[in-house]
TrEMBL record:
A single MF term (Gene Ontology): protein-glutamate O-methyltransferase activity
Name of the top EC class for this enzyme: transferase
Keywords: Methyltransferase, S-adenosyl-L-methionine, Transferase
Protein name (database record): protein-glutamate O-methyltransferase
Coiled-coil annotated spans: none
Upper lineage: Bacteria, Pseudomonadati, Pseudomonadota, Gammaproteobacteria, Lysobacterales
Length: 279
């Protein structure tokens, strides 16, 4: 079935607005071609002839929303993305945290975790640290608004250029924490058992009294407008302990926002107004 590619301005506007309403992602009108391309496959799968018809589906079938969100989000990620962050965590953060919290469990949040490479990179680093400091314990919460990427993370099987990247940058990690399954690299259960994957919209408050010591909020703020970024930063801050560390992405900055985060070094901030640590 042919899809009508002539889309009137009001339908374009309504779909771009839908993206904003459901994800907080601000897509200006010049992004219409991108959105159109991403939704095309879905229209084909539903045998729809026009984007106007798809708007009707979104209106009338609540279960369509997760498909929509999966399609409109950009999920690019990789293992050990931005090397200097991992150097900081290994050389500075983990030793300091462990010395300050003997017997404690380090709570980490990979917010906007996408397919899980960031969470597994954190787990590999923590495992290496634990090998050298047997009393050390950690838990990782990996969240994202898109459910399809969370399923990939939960499954823990990777192939293609992300595995090739890991093979080049840290071959020993690939060897130690993955096994080969059907031509893919599968995370070993011991590593996976330290991570929980959960659906979460960053524009909403984290429920369940979560208080993390370390939050990675990387390469997601860029998709939100200033108001949205402010809301997300406050939500993340509220889910962190006082003195907790926030790490953002390379093309992001908190400079123009009024937050409780204090600059520590590029990409790294400290929460100075949060909650005391629990037992
Ligand atoms: C480019 S990826 C970044 C992945 C990882 N943090 C990294 O830096 O490699 C952005 C992720 O943010 C997620 N995302 C977008 N809007 C979100 C929202 N409102 N709440 C939670 N996650 C969101 C997307 O689904 C996507 O997986």
């Amino acid at each position: 079935m042919d899809i009508d590619c002539e889309v009137d301005r009001s339908t374009q506007h309504a779909l771009l607005q839908r993206v904003y309403r459901h994800t907080g992602i601000a897509m200006p009108e010049r992004k219409w071609t991108l959105l159109q391309g991403r939704l095309r496959r879905r229209l084909q799968a539903l045998s729809l002839e026009s984007y106007q018809d798809y708007l009707g589906v979104l209106e009338n079938r609540p279960d369509e929303l997760s498909h929509f969100i999966n399609l409109v989000t950009t999920n690019e990620t990789s293992f050990f993305r931005t090397p200097r962050i991992w150097d900081y965590l290994w050389q500075v953060y983990l030793p300091h945290w462990h010395a300050a919290h003997p017997g404690g469990t380090l709570q980490i949040w990979s917010a906007a975790a996408s397919t899980g490479e960031e969470a597994y990179s954190l787990a590999m680093l923590c495992e290496e640290y634990r090998e050298r400091h047997p009393g050390f314990r950690y838990r990782i919460l990996a969240t994202d608004i898109a459910t399809d990427v969370l399923q990939v993370g939960q499954r823990g099987r990777y192939g293609g250029r992300n595995v090739e990247g890991l093979r080049k940058s840290r071959p020993a990690m690939l060897e130690k924490y993955f096994c080969a399954t059907d031509g893919e690299a599968e995370v070993l259960p011991a590593l996976r058992s330290n991570i929980s994957f959960r659906e979460h919209h960053l524009h909403k408050r984290m429920e369940g009294g979560v208080r993390v010591d370390l939050a990675l909020l990387r390469n997601v703020l860029i998709y939100f407008d200033e108001e949205g970024q402010q809301v997300v930063l406050e939500n993340v801050r509220r889910a962190m302990v006082n003195d907790g560390v926030l790490i953002i992405g390379e093309s992001e900055s908190l400079g123009r926002f009024k937050t409780g985060f204090e600059f520590e070094q590029p990409l790294i901030y400290r929460n100075r107004t949060g909650h005391a640590r629990g037992p």
